[in-house]
Design goal:
With 85 residues, the chain is α+β, with helices and mostly antiparallel strands. The protein has two helices and five strands; from the N terminus they run E-E-H-E-E-E-H. It folds into two domains: 51 residues, no CATH class; 30 residues, no CATH class. The strands form two sheets. It has a three-stranded antiparallel beta sheet with strand order 2-1-3, with helices on one face. The longest helix has 11 residues.
């Protein structure tokens, strides 16, 4: 499973771009997904493809578990911040 994020150039933001689309795709063929995304991209846009689920290790117990790639540090048991709040 992969997640595609599409960014568009935007001079009103500090970074110079903004997230305009974020969607999960249930596929194991990254190359085909990348080709499809490139075909629908407009000028001034860029994309990033992430593996949706990543394996992390619990900070205290050391057990491995799966979580989304975009989980904030304060919500992830893999970070010290989670356990100190």
């Amino acid at each position: 499973m992969y997640t595609v994020e599409i960014y568009r150039a935007d001079g009103r933001t500090k970074s110079g771009e903004r997230l305009v689309h974020k969607k999960d795709y249930d596929t194991s063929d990254r190359d085909n997904l990348e080709h499809t995304v490139r075909c629908v991209l407009r000028s001034g846009e860029r994309y990033e493809i992430y593996e949706t689920w990543v394996t992390r290790k619990n900070f205290l117990s050391g057990r491995e578990y799966q979580e989304r790639y975009d989980t904030p540090q304060s919500c992830s048991p893999a970070s010290e911040l989670y356990w100190t709040m």
